[in-house]
Specification:
Length: about 425
């Protein structure tokens, strides 16, 4: 057995999400701490075309964000399409490609033209590999219910390629990072429509059981209603496609408008429309007490961050005294950061053979990430202590993802507790 095979045999590579989710958490902490060090002390960051801001934005979106995307789709697509999981060797090769892409981009400013080409090949190649791996399975699925993932991933591939094309042409590439944020929001909406169906309905079933128990205590001989049975006082949850599609359309329209007409009031009005579409999507979520459970409320907060982010972006483009970065950070630190954390906790544990984690660290970490987003957004408002809020934001983010790295890393680095050998959910209740 080669060294490569011995490494691939480790529990970390049992399923694709394990290594990529751990890389996401660790890189999320390191990336933001490095950025804070630069802001506070001026410590050197990797020299890349466009300077420190481009490095920070690129790595947050295309390093941290795409590591999470890779972990999710490489696990979800086999489940959605009833096909075998991607193998250990595939996972290890992709992880090495992701890491090499990070290093190549860091060195792109030092190595000159050759470094820029290498960074372009590795970063674009990483996204291309993901698309090539999942496209056949999504396309061959008889019902083709999940093709939206394919279109979103293809769009992200285009965005990554566009970024590096601008770099190679000597242009400032930030427009592609902003476009990437829009594509990421679309992917989040699409993924959330799948994840929320289970999470919110599980919370509703628990609430129905609680009410049934109360009725059984109050009315002798009455059969308690079972989960899934009608309850006139408890609305059902459905992730309705028309609302989801309207939100996707609004986000896509703003992304295209901002790309074609940067800083235009037209893009501002469309951003407000996107915010309204996301708020409209939230109407599906108002299911009463069940919404206040930790998992449902965490996902609910993601959409609020998204709606507020587009709202602030719209106001900024229309001339209100709000920095464009305020809304943008609600999208990236808030909606992206919190949704990724939720996926790490939900999919990461259940597909490792564990039940959902009900320990206190989860809400503490989620609140810290939410606070990081709000603090960073507040730094873009007039008269606010920018340096202090930026430091507080980084500290809160590092706390949230540091906790995730510790508690989830312990799960990803060891074998399944239920003797399972794949990526299925818990096989028994002993875990």
């Amino acid at each position: 057995m080669t060294s490569f095979d011995r490494l691939a045999a480790k529990p970390l590579f049992l399923c694709s999400f394990r290594s990529f989710f751990l890389a996401t958490a660790l890189y999320g902490v390191a990336l933001l701490l490095g950025w804070l060090g630069f802001l506070a002390t001026g410590i050197g960051l990797p020299e890349v075309p466009g300077g420190p801001i481009v490095w920070h934005a690129h790595e947050l979106m295309f390093g941290f964000g795409l590591a999470a995307v890779a972990g999710f789709v490489l696990t979800a697509v086999p489940e959605f399409t009833a096909t075998p999981a991607f193998g250990r060797r595939v996972t290890l090769v992709l992880l090495l490609c992701w890491a090499a892409a990070r290093l190549a981009f860091w060195l792109s400013g030092v190595l000159g033209a050759g470094g820029a080409v290498l960074a372009a090949l590795l970063n674009s190649g990483f996204m291309a590999a993901i698309v090539v791996l999942v496209a056949p399975r999504l396309w061959r699925d008889p019902e083709r219910r999940h093709l939206s993932f394919l279109w979103g991933l293809a769009a992200m591939w285009l965005v990554v390629g566009g970024f590096h094309a601008d770099v190679l042409r000597g242009l400032y590439p930030m427009r592609w990072v902003l476009a990437g944020a829009g594509v990421m929001m679309v992917l989040i909406v699409v993924a959330m429509s799948r994840v929320s169906m289970r999470i919110v309905n599980d919370a509703l079933d628990a609430e129905r059981l609680r009410r049934a128990a109360e009725r059984g205590d109050a009315v002798a001989g009455e059969r308690p209603r079972l989960p899934g049975e009608d309850d006139d006082e408890l609305p059902a949850y459905r992730a309705r496609p028309p609302r989801r599609n309207l939100a996707v359309f609004g986000i896509a329209a703003h992304t295209l408008a901002e790309f074609a007409l940067p800083g235009s009031p037209i893009a501002g009005w469309i951003a407000l429309a996107a915010a309204a579409a996301v708020l409209n999507l939230l109407n599906d979520w108002h299911v009463g007490r069940a919404l206040l459970t930790r998992w449902a409320f965490m996902l609910y907060a993601v959409y609020w961050m998204m709606a507020l982010g587009y709202g602030l972006i719209g106001l900024s483009l229309l001339g209100v005294a709000v920095a464009p970065s305020a809304g943008l950070h609600l999208l990236t630190v808030g909606a992206m950061g919190l949704s990724i954390f939720g996926v790490l906790c939900i999919a990461g544990r259940t597909h490792s053979g564990y039940e959902l984690d009900m320990r206190p660290w989860v809400p503490v970490a989620a609140l810290a990430i939410g606070a990081a987003a709000l603090a960073r957004a507040a730094a873009g408002l007039p008269g606010m202590p920018v340096a202090g809020l930026q430091a507080a934001s980084v500290a809160a983010w590092a706390l949230g993802y540091g906790l995730a790295a510790v508690f989830l890393g312990a799960v990803f680095l060891r074998p399944r507790p239920d003797a399972g050998t794949g990526c299925e959910e818990p096989m028994d209740e002993a875990a």
